[in-house]
Specification:
Blueprint lengths: L22 H4 L13 H11 L3 E5 L5 E6 H13 L20 E2 L4 H11 L3 E6 L2 E7 H11 L6
Parallel strand pairs: 3-4
Antiparallel strand pairs: 1-2, 4-5
Helix pairs in contact: 4-5
């Protein structure tokens, strides 16, 4: 009788690192949002309170209508000084960026990095089926790239 070779049950090897690469995996989901009727003064107070530099503006139905940022607030501060007036309760709607570029939730962080590179934005709203589901910033893309560094991706 011959000798049989028996290896037994083979061990299943898992990938050591299986990093997600979609925007939805790295975006901020809990957002500070603003309304078009809010005052610029209130927005600036919320920026300092939450240590943010901007956020989405939603209408009463929850649809994205703009983005308000520190740069938009600078316009108000500059105009106030020029006309020698205090910062009044002017509404967000007068100063927000209305032409909002957004990205879908299911694109890769690499595609998002390309969009940031082409459009010179600090943050982009993330949309799913026409609704705001999050926001991704340049910093979020850098964090994602650091998590993926040293690993191969396809």
């Amino acid at each position: 009788m011959g000798i049989k070779s028996f290896q037994g049950i083979r061990k299943v090897f898992k990938k050591e690192f299986d990093a997600p690469i979609l925007v939805s995996d790295y975006m901020t989901k809990k957002l500070i949002t603003f309304s078009p009727e809010q005052s610029i003064l209130e927005v600036m107070e919320l920026f300092t309170k939450y240590n943010i530099s901007g956020g989405p503006v939603l209408d009463e139905n929850g649809f994205l209508v703009g983005i308000i940022s520190e740069a938009d607030c600078m316009k108000q501060i500059s105009e106030s000084r020029y006309f020698n007036q205090p910062i009044l309760d002017k509404s967000v709607e007068k100063f927000m960026t209305k032409e909002v570029e957004s990205i879908p939730h299911d694109i890769s962080i690499f595609d998002a990095a390309g969009i940031f590179d082409r459009h010179n934005r600090r943050r982009l709203p993330v949309m799913k089926d026409g609704l705001l589901v999050g926001q991704i910033s340049r910093k979020d893309i850098v964090v994602a790239a650091l998590r993926l560094s040293g690993h191969n991706w396809k």
